[in-house]
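sry for the spam today, last one i promise. struct tokens for design, 490 residues
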């Protein structure tokens, strides 16, 4: 066993811990892969003599306890993968002394404390993945390795602002700092990261404007700045492409059995394992490998952005996702959006957009999610053809002046002003309803008689006067008839 250099026992059902006979009896071991088993306990808790290790993969097990400090004695170690375990405690600062380290992959554990400032000494670091841990504190200001390609620090408790970190990392392809507590502005030196393809900064406390320097990044594929406090206008010069177009991926050599890096003929580094999380169709998906190379999108939702939607965004024909919801955007939906021929998810809801929905949007044949709810849109909804035949009322709700299927009918909303044709045999009574007039007259007459009867019953004086008046009327009528009627016949 002393001459054994490579040991791969991955994807089995091994249990228990790492035996001391292995850590002491295989002193020539350079490659140790025990991933995807049921191993548990502490890592290298006993005696250790694997000082020639180049690559150590213990991912997807049940290891607990802290990261062993003895690893700092492995002077040629370039890859550590402890992902998906139950590790806890702080990251040893002594790891910064392993100058050969290229990949540190430890997501989905319970690691805590700050990122050691000693990591600034890792000049050859290519991948740093500490996502979904309990890492706190701020990023070391000196952390800007020039060769690093992928940084995944999402779902931690990082705070502070981005000042000089990554300012010299011109080879950076992926920067995922989402779901932390970072504050301040997006740094203006972002344009120095010329190879940046995936910028994921969602769910932080970032503020200020979206820097115009982002427009100088010609290889951007995914940009997610959602759930921050960004303000100002959306830069009209944003350019989004796909990874397969921005990088000429030729014949490749896969280094390491985890295939975390692929070196192309142009020496570009293509991610094939480390996932990038991006919200598409209202669901957060994990993109990695070949699928990631074909993905592109913009998510600026849940901010304080103002102004109009730039018409130039409609020129991004390769984009798959566009989410501008929950902002304060005004103006009309650009008709150029009909050029987004690859778009699958378009969300413009919860803004102050006005005008009509461009009918040309029915040309978007891959669109499966469309939301313009809670704006000030008016007019008729697009025809229910193609993909638009699948969108229900919830996609349009909150726009009182919007009509058409699946909303209320436009004809019912604004009926034509056609004069009513007269009914045969019916008189044109003008503005008076004669039936109502006759009923009112009879009711008024009855009420007057009841009032007179009540007064006469209550007041004796008026009652005697009334009967006297009636009696005089009868007498006068009698003498009038007696005196004048005989004369009419002579």
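last one done:
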């Amino acid at each position: 066993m002393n001459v054994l250099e490579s040991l791969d026992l991955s994807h089995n059902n091994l249990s228990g811990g790492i035996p001391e006979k292995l850590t002491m009896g295989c002193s020539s071991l350079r490659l140790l892969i025990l991933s995807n088993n049921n191993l548990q306990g502490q890592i290298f808790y006993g005696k250790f003599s694997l000082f020639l290790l180049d690559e150590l993969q213990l991912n997807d097990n049940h290891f607990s306890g802290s990261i062993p400090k003895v690893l700092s004695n492995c002077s040629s170690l370039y890859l550590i993968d402890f992902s998906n375990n139950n590790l806890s405690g702080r990251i040893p600062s002594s790891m910064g002394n392993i100058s050969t380290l290229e990949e540190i992959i430890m997501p989905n554990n319970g690691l805590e404390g700050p990122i050691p400032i000693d990591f600034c000494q890792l000049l050859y670091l290519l991948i740093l993945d500490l996502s979904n841990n309990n890492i706190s504190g701020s990023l070391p200001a000196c952390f800007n390795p020039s060769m690093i390609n992928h940084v995944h620090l999402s779902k931690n408790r990082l705070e502070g602002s981005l000042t000089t970190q990554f300012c010299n990392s011109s080879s950076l392809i992926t920067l995922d700092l989402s779901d932390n507590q970072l504050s301040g502005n997006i740094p203006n030196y972002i344009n120095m990261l010329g190879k940046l393809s995936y910028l994921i900064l969602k769910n932080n406390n970032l503020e200020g404007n979206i820097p115009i320097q982002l427009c100088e990044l010609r290889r951007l594929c995914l940009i997610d700045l959602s759930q921050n406090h960004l303000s100002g206008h959306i830069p009209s010069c944003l350019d989004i492409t796909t990874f397969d177009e921005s990088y000429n991926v030729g014949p490749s050599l896969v280094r390491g059995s985890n295939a975390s890096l692929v070196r192309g003929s142009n020496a570009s580094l293509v991610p094939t394992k480390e996932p990038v999380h991006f919200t598409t169709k209202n669901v957060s998906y994990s993109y990695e490998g070949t699928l990631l190379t074909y993905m592109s999108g913009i998510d600026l939702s849940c901010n304080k952005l103002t102004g109009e939607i730039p018409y130039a965004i409609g020129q991004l024909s390769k984009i798959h996702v566009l989410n501008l919801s929950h902002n304060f955007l005004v103006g009309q939906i650009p008709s150029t959006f009909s050029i987004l021929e690859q778009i699958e998810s378009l969300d413009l809801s919860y803004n102050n957009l006005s005008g009509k929905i461009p009918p040309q949007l029915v040309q978007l044949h891959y669109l499966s999610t469309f939301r313009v709810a809670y704006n000030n849109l008016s007019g008729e909804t697009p025809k229910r053809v193609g993909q638009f035949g699948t969108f229900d009322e919830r996609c349009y709700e909150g726009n009182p002046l919007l009509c058409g299927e699946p909303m209320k009918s436009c004809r019912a909303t604004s009926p034509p002003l056609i004069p009513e044709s007269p009914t045969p045999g019916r008189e044109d009574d003008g503005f008076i309803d004669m039936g109502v007039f006759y009923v009112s007259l009879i009711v008024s007459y009855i009420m007057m008689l009841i009032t007179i009867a009540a007064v006469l019953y209550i007041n004796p004086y008026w009652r005697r006067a009334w009967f006297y008046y009636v009696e005089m009327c009868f007498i006068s009528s009698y003498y009038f008839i007696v005196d004048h009627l005989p004369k009419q016949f002579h």
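Confidence is low (pLDDT under 50) at residues 249-269, 414-431. ok im logging off now
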